[in-house]
Amino acid sequence: MKDRTFLVTGATDGLGLDLAKRLAATGATVLIHGRDAQRLANAARDVGGAVRTYLADFADFDQVRAMAARLADDGVRLDVLINNAGMGAGRRDDRRLESKGGHELRFAVNHLAPFLLTRLLLPLLSPAARIVTVASAGQSPIDFDDVMLHRGYEPLRAYRQSKLAQIATCFELAERLDPAQATVNSLHPASLMGTKMVYETFGYTMSTVAEGSEATLRFALSDDLAGITGRYYDGVREARAHAQCYDPSARQRLWRLSSELVGLPAD
Fold first, then answer.
1. Whole-angstrom distance, CA of residue 189 vs CA of residue 193
2. Which of 7, 187, 196, 265 could link 31 by a cystine bridge, Cβ 3.0 to 4.6 Å?
3. Quick check: is 48 in a domain?
C-alpha cells in the first residue's frame, strides 16, 4: 500500500473523510479534495500520514480544470480515484440554484464536475487503475427535454437525476476503457448514513458511515474485484440500477451532452 496513491474527492467530512483516514492508516499516499481551504487543512490534520490537499469548488469547472492541472504538474500517478464529492438532496423547499456556468447546481456538482475531472485524469492513471463513484439507490430518469429542471423543480428529483447520471456515465466509460487501463464501477454505499447531508434531508439515519466506507473500500482494494468493470452495487452486493442506465442510446446521449457542457470532445 505504501506504493499506491488514492484520490478521494469530497474528503473534508462524512464518508470521504472516513475513507481518507482508513486509506492513510494503510500507509498509502492519500490525496484529498475539498472546496473550503480551512476545512481541507483540518481534514489533512485528521487524516495524517502521506496526505496532500487539492482545493476546488465543483460548482466552478475552471477550478476543476485547475485541480486536474495541478495533479498533473505534481507528477501524480493514480491507482484509485474515488469520486465522492457531491451535494445531498437538501430540504424540500430549497429553491433551484445554478453553478457558475449556469447549470442546475446538483447536476453540475454531482455529475458534470466529476465527469470532467475523471476524463481529465485518465492520462494520470496507473495501469489497471480503479475508478469508483459513490452514487445512490435513489435514481430518477433524465428528461432530456428539461435536463436542467427549469419546469417543476424539486430538490430530491434533482439529486436523484444527478445520481442516475453518475451511474449511466460509469457504464458508458467502462465500455470505452480497456479494463487493463482502468475499471469503472459505481455503488450505493449504504442507506441514510450518519452524515450531515442525510440529517439535513431526512432527519434520521439507517446506517453508519463505517458501513459505507467498508463497501466503498471493497471496490478500491479487493482482489476479488480486479478486472470487474461496468457494474453497480448496493453495498457489497451487485444490483440493478434504474432501467435508463442500461439504455445505450440514453447513455450515449448523456455522454455527448455532458461533454458539450464541460467543453470536452465527445470521443
1. 9
2. 7
3. yes
Cell 458534470, residue? Answer: 112
Within 69-155, strands assigned E span 78-83, 125-134
- Measure the CA dihedral 85/91/92/98, to 10°: -50
Residue 267 domain flag? no
Number of compact structural domains in the chain: 1
At 38-73, the pLDDT tens digits run 999 999 999 998 899 999 999 999 999 999 999 999
Decide: 28 and 55 in contact? Cβ < 8 Å.
Answer: no
DSSP 165-216: HHHHHHHHHHHHS-TTTEEEEEEE--TTBSSHHHHHHHS--SB-HHHHHHHH
pLDDT tens digits along 156-209: 999 999 999 999 999 999 999 999 999 999 999 977 666 766 646 666 566 688
Cell of 166: 453518475
If residue 34 lies in a helix (H) or strand (E), which one and from where to where?
strand 29-34
User: Which amino acid appears at position 132 of this protein?
Assistant: V
Report if residue 34 sits inside a domain. yes
CATH number of the domain that 23 lies in?
A: 3.40.50.720
Q: What are phi and psi of 38, to 5 degrees?
A: -70, -45
Rounded CA gap, 21 and 257, in Å?
Answer: 36
Straight-line distance from the first to the last Cα atom of the chain, in angstroms, rounded to the nearest whole number? 34
Task: Write out the three cell numbers for 133.
Answer: 463513484
C-alpha cell at 198: 442525510
- C-alpha span between 126 and 122 (Å, rounded): 9
Q: Which residues are catalytic?
A: 159
Q: Which helix (H) or strand (E) holds 155?
A: helix 155-176
Q: What global pTM score does this model have?
A: 0.94
